[in-house]
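Q: Here's a chain of 537 amino acids. Please give me its 3D structure as tokens.
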Amino acid sequence: MNKKILCFLTAVLMLLLAACKPDAKTPETAQIAADTLSGYQIVVPKTMEADERAAVTQLVKNAYGHFGVLLTVVEDDVTEPGENEILIGNTNRQQSAEVFQTLKYDDYYVGIHGGKLVVRGGSSAATAAAVLKLKETVAANRGDAAFFRNDRDEFTYRHTYRFADVKINGVSASEYVLLYADARENREQTFANLLREQIIRLCGIAIPVQSDAVEASGNGIYFGGVNNPGAGSQALLTAEDGVIYLGGNDRDLFYATQILLERLNATTDGNIAVGAREELSYTAADLDLSAYGVYPEKIKVMSYNLRNAGQNTSDGKYRQLAAMMDLAGADFISVQECVGTGTSDLIRVKMKNKDSYATVAAVGIHNAIIYNKDRYTLLEKGSEQIGKADDEYGSKYDRYNFWAKFRSNESGVEFVVVSIHIDYEEAAGNAQLQKIVDFMAKTYPGLPAVMLGDYNLPEGKLKQSILTDAGFSSARETAVKTVNRNLVTYVSEDTPSKNAIIDYIYTTGMTAQYYEVMDKDFNPSDHRPILADLYID
């Protein structure tokens, strides 16, 4: 080939290559020079999660420690866009939005984009991770002429997901909105979030969750969007015009959510389907979202020994007792030493929500159960003597087993509440406890139950094997979260050596999520009340 022609073609090729570069200034000159860093400011959104703010604080400290520049942090809505900005998180700047469009939930990006240093993740946790990545870069660049350079410091982290997308009836998850009925007081929002989290785990796409009070755009998955006219224990899934409806009562929605999650877990290609009308019959044994920390029924219980509250008790004491109950906000309150069958009502009428509660009591015993009648229906109640003063076990007083069976008005689930007040003599108390456990096994086998009250025996003397061998567990021992767990529940003013934990909440067929010993100065009793949030399995 002629040498002149070869030189000409080479020159043309170099011009073409130069013309094809996206920006002659990138990446060589896409940088923040160390000597110009003082002219920059960090821009953040007005609303940030705690982990994001903590990471930004660390970044500011690092920049000062390694470059001697104290970067100012401003919120995006109080400053106009400028040239020298480090954008962190979901700011209102165009560059932040453009980067976000390229990220899935756990992904993040750190780099100069559109003239701004953008630090952005697909979620708040991912953004925090991105900021910490920049912090490491700042430390590595100490003493360099450049604070940040795209050609060496730019970084994009991509999380690995099972699927690139999840499709429901052929529609991408990114096109859906998860809706919950704002007017209904149930756990629809919780169910919507469960579905969202599962889809995130599978493909990294975060579907918006919002109330139906807000106008939605896109295809909807609507929790509570259609009523189920059929009998109980039947959930409804309906797909119509790009909207997927989950129908029925709260328990039905629980099961419909479970079915969708099971389909997502089982998919091998990221595709699941919902029929035009699926009627899903089930039994209580079929309900299980416990792996996600959700249960078909949640109840809050309280046990409270009232210290001989009786007909002659002052009105002031009744008000104090009622105030403790108001503070607890329990669905079921087991009271002991409530002398006289009308005493529990004298206390109940002092409660703020007195019209929502009713009392179960029996003649001749000092136990009663105050319960939320708006949420639960009393089915059965009963009492039987389990100990007599001076009997062969050395009982000091007559003792009774007192129980009531309830049904949830919302879910239909049935369970038993037992109010305990056994003897403080070790042999007598344990013998009485055995009778109560035997009664429950014979009368309500397999039914969820909670036995709460004044057991009168500390842990060293209470024969816990009577309970554990029968399948009962202590909420104090098993609750996920506890408050004042080791605080004594009986406080003797005259004999402090008698102070002990003698009030307990034992359950079967239930999971304890929260347990508390209430400690309030205005408590008029020598017992501190105990509380628990229980989920029926």
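Q: Can you summarize the key feature?
A: The radius of gyration is 32 Å.
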